[in-house]
Structure formats: C-alpha cells, structure tokens
Amino acid sequence: MNRNITPPSVMIVDDVAENLQVLSKMLQQEGFLVRPVPAGQLAINAAVSEPPAIILLDIMMPDMDGYQVCMTLKRNPATRDIPILFLSALT
C-alpha cells in the first residue's frame, strides 16, 4: 500500500544565509520539508498564506526582530497556534 504522506513543514527564519543553509540541510536529512525565510515580514506573509508545522525563529534580525515576528504571529488567529522555537547565535 503506497501512502503519500507529506512531511512536516518547518519554517526557518534567519537573516544569515549560512545559518539557513546549515539548518535546512540538517532538517532535510531528517525528512522535514524546509522553508527557509531571510526576513521577519516575509516569514509572517509566508506563515499566513501557508502555515508551517513549526517555526524556528532567529531573535536578532534587522528591521523586525524575532520577538516582533512572534508577537505578530501570535496576534493573528490564522497563525497563533504555530509552535515557535527561538534561535540565537549569541554566545
């Protein structure tokens, strides 16, 4: 029996391209469908149009930081239930 099961979608939001590449590769190898996004407002738009199963969200980003993105998503009924994990490259 062949079942077409779509893997869980993980949105990664980070303004550093190298971080997006590393995390995307790691998660893809584990079978996740990865959606890398380089900016906060783009992530909000993408999450509203096609909500992911989970969002990995960088804290420190220009223009709109991770906290602002999170607050915006949690205020929207279409995206408020998406789990968000914060990421930080700070030491």
Tell me what you see in this structure.
It is a single chain. The chain is of the alpha/beta class and 91 residues long. The longest helix has 13 residues, at 17-29. The termini are far apart. The protein is built from three helices and four strands.
Output the helix-strand order: EHEHEHE
- Characterize the largest beta sheet: strand count, sense, and whether it forms a barrel: 4 strands, parallel
> What is the chains' assembly state?
single chain
Order of strands across the widest beta sheet? 2-1-3-4
Q: How confident is the prediction overall: mean pLDDT?
A: 93
List low-pLDDT spans. Answer: none
Number of helices: 3
Structural class: alpha/beta
Strand-residue proportion = 15-25%
Distance between the termini: 49 Å
**Total number of β-strand segments?**
4
Shape: globular
How big is the Rg?
13 Å
Give helix % range: 25-40%
Set out the fold topology:
Layout: E1 9-13, H1 17-29, E2 33-37, H2 40-49, E3 54-58, H3 66-75, E4 84-87
Parallel strand pairs: 1-2, 1-3, 3-4
Helix pairs in contact: 2-3
Give a brief outline of the structure:
The chain has 91 residues and is an alpha/beta fold. It has helices spanning 17-29, 40-49, 66-75, and strands spanning 9-13, 33-37, 54-58, 84-87.
What distinguishing features does this structure have?
91 residues; alpha/beta; four-stranded parallel β-sheet; 3 helices
